Structures are given as C-alpha cells and as structure tokens.
Amino acid sequence: MPTISIITAAYAPKSDFLPATADGVRAQVLPAGWDVEWVVQEDGADPSLEAFFHDVPNARYGANGVQLGISATRNLALTRARGRLVQVLDHDDVLLPGALATLLAAFERHEIHWAVGAADDLLPDGTRKAWDSALPFGLVKAGEANAWAEAHGGNWPVHCAGLLVRTDSLRAVGGWASSPVDDDLVAFAALSELGDGWNEQAVTWLYRQHAGQTTRSDALVGLRDAGRLMALQRVKALRGAGMVFAPAAPLGFDGRSHDVNLLGNIKPPASLG
Q1: Model pTM above 0.85
Q2: Structural domains in the chain?
Q3: How far apart are the C-alpha atoms of 115 and 200, rounded to whole Å?
Q4: What string of DSSP letters covers 109-128?
Q5: Which residue numbers delimit the Glycosyltransferase 2-like domain (predicted)?
Q6: Which of 80, 154, 212, 246 is the most exposed place for a label (fewest CB within 10 A)?
Q7: Distances from the Cα of 203 to the Cαs of 13, 18, 101, 102, 117, in angstroms?
C-alpha cells in the first residue's frame, strides 16, 4: 500500500505543543488505498519522548542520542521513511483535518514534485491570522518560486514548513540542507528549481507562533541571512549546470528506494543512542 511519511524532528525541552501536533496527525484520513506513518526523530543527548508516541497510531519513533540539530535530525528521519511522499511537520505546528488528502489530490492530477497548502498563523492566544499567497494558486512551474524570491530580496513566497514532497525528489537534492537556519528553505529552493509544484488555496495547516520558536532564538541573530544566501547560491548553481528533474512518474509506481542496504545487511537505525 502506498504511504505518506510525515517527518517530524522533536526536541524534549521545546515539546510543549507536541500533543496538539499529534492530534492533527491522528485526524488525517487518506483516500482508500493509502496509508500514513509518522516518522519522529528526537534530537538531544537525553531523549525522553518515546513513551509519548506509544499511543499514537502509525508513529515510528527514533532518537539521536546526541545533539545534532534540526536538519541532521530530519535527515535521519528521512532514512527511515517508507512513503512515496513526505509531509514536513514541525513539532509545534498542526495539520488540519483533510490536509494530506487535499495535497495528495494535486499529485494525482498533475506531474508535480511538491505541493504546499495555505497556512494560518496560530497565535499565542489561540486565534488564527490568515495570510495572502504571493504566488497564484495552482500549478507552479519549475523556477517560478525562485524567480519571485530573487526579485524580492531573497524572500520566498512559499511556506516550506508545510510541504508535501516526493520522497525520491527530496533525497535527490540531499534532503534538508546542513544549515543552521532555513534548512527547509534551501531544500525547497532546489526542489522548486528542478521540478514543478502546486500551490494549494485551501488552508491545510497552522503555523504556531510562540516565544520558544527556534527562529526567534537570539543565538541565530547573526545568521539570519545565511540560509537565504545558500538557497540563492544553490539555485544559481543548478541553473548553471542545466539540471532538471525527469518527468514525474505516476504515484502508482513501486518506489522502493528505502530498501537500501549497506554491504547487504545494514539498514538505517531507529536509534543512534
């Protein structure tokens, strides 16, 4: 059965909103013939969240056992993903009911490599704030999102924390970038340069605003522009190399890229600790 892998990098000291995130995962109902798994990878030297996921259907937990940061943690989760599609989900954000089914429909109608739904900000008082999309809704041709960013000071018109993406396409660009900031943006810049995507008008997820967000950390003040610079450099390099994804295969293909063994007997570990 084809599967969507929801990937979440978790971190115990900042896991206050994890119950709401789990509720959003539980609320997902996929079309007949599709399954879902929640691949959670906990960062940190002292993992403590495993028991939380015992009662979450289809959750597959792993732990680093060492502090590696969000991009490395996401990439370790990606080694364990068995789905043909990967849904990005931060451990403080919320998928709304029907989110996965809505985005999946775009993959079934179009030869695309990524899709993203609209997001409302979830404010600390529990209210929501909507945002207008800077890109037209519907099909986004390869390179269009990056062209917009280049014309607007390195600001992208797509919220990368809500992406649904072909697993093999994400792996082809190296997963999430090894960047202290905007690792998801650098990955998206490559994905959207190489292949077409879909900008969904329906609100499919909530982006939580709170004081403990990593993006608000004072330690990252001097690195605010580093990820965007990496993204722009990657886009320029891809264009210079003339690279492009092959036409997207139908989602019915038998993608088995997760069945990779090293020396014939080593599989990706569930835990490094």
Answers
A1: yes
A2: 3-241 (3.90.550.10)
A3: 7
A4: HS--SEEEEEEEEE-TTS-E
A5: 5-133
A6: 246
A7: 29, 20, 12, 10, 6
List, in order, residues 6 or more apart from 252 with CB less than 8 Å away.
Answer: 2
- What pLDDT, in 10s, does the model give residues 158-209? 888 999 999 999 999 999 999 888 999 999 999 999 999 999 999 999 999 8
Residue 262 neighbours by CB under 8 Å, 6+ apart:
none
Residue type, 44: G
Closest among 90, 110, 116 to 176, alpha carbons compared: 90
Report the SS3 class of residue 193: helix
Report which of 141, 160, 150 is spatially closest to residue 233, judged by C-alpha positions: 150
Give the three-state DSSP class for 168: helix
For residue 191, give the 3-state DSSP assignment.
helix
| Helix extents (H) in the chain | 18-26, 70-80, 99-109, 144-151, 167-172, 183-194, 226-241
Query: Among candidates 76, 42, 79, which has minimal Cα distance to 167?
Result: 79
Report yes or no: 203 and 120 within 8 Å, Cβ to Cβ: yes
Whole-angstrom distance, CA of residue 228 vs CA of residue 69: 18
Query: Any idea what DSSP says for residue 247?
Result: P
